[in-house]
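Appendix B, record 7
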Amino acid sequence: MYVFVLTLHSLVRWMVLFNLFFALYRAYYGWFSKKQFSRFDKFIISSVLTVVHLQFILGLWLYFISPVARYFMHNFKEAIHQRDFRFFGMEHLVMMLLAVSIITIGSVKSKRKATDIEKYKTMAFWFTAGLLIILSSIPWPFSPFTSRPYFRLF
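Structure tokens (predicted):
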């Protein structure tokens, strides 16, 4: 079960990044081109939220069945001083919760704006902030915090 959820979580990350980059393209393009906020843009926001929340649920599920997180919780005094355990036991979880919250707040705020330009601008600001947090907290193979492969297979 652990390997399946870990692999799924790793693969869904690419869906999150693709959706966020596409949403940001639409947001900045709409903002600077003064486009009308369309039903398609609303759909993009919904798809970003769906995939981000799905990834967060998978991440929480993974957190509670992970031997790394279990070790971190049961051996906190030792684990907090070990980079891999601290990253997956605390830092990754907190930063991703923050990113999901920021993206969710941004989607709600953008829907409530009066003008189309304000909707795009709000979407661009909040989604960019969320994406930057996500990019800094993914365990990339080149990350100074901890590294994992780009793709995991079942």
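Remarks on this record: Residues 2-137 form one domain. The CA atoms of residues 26 and 61 lie 32 Å apart.
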